[in-house]
Fold:
Amino acid sequence: MRHLSFDLTDGSDDVLTLDAMASTREADHAAVMAEVAQVLAWAQAEFGGRQGPVEDGNAWDHELLVQHEAGGWLTVTLTFSASAEFAEAFQAAFTDPDD
Structure:
């Protein structure tokens, strides 16, 4: 990922949170949204049929927000609620082992 960087936090009830944010000018917004699409396509391919509230036994769910900020900036926030299985697979797929 060039624009999105993810942070993993532990939550209650075995629900993990993966948060990503990117703040760019309009010229780079399409690239950010392409990364969002890539991540969501991966989630659907790897955990299709298992999207929904993690508290109810699903593997993942997400929320996507796009905000127009002052000065022509766009902020994209992608938040996953995730099971441990999803978070581990996500990190294996999208985390550089040297980080």
Summary: The longest strand covers residues 16-25.
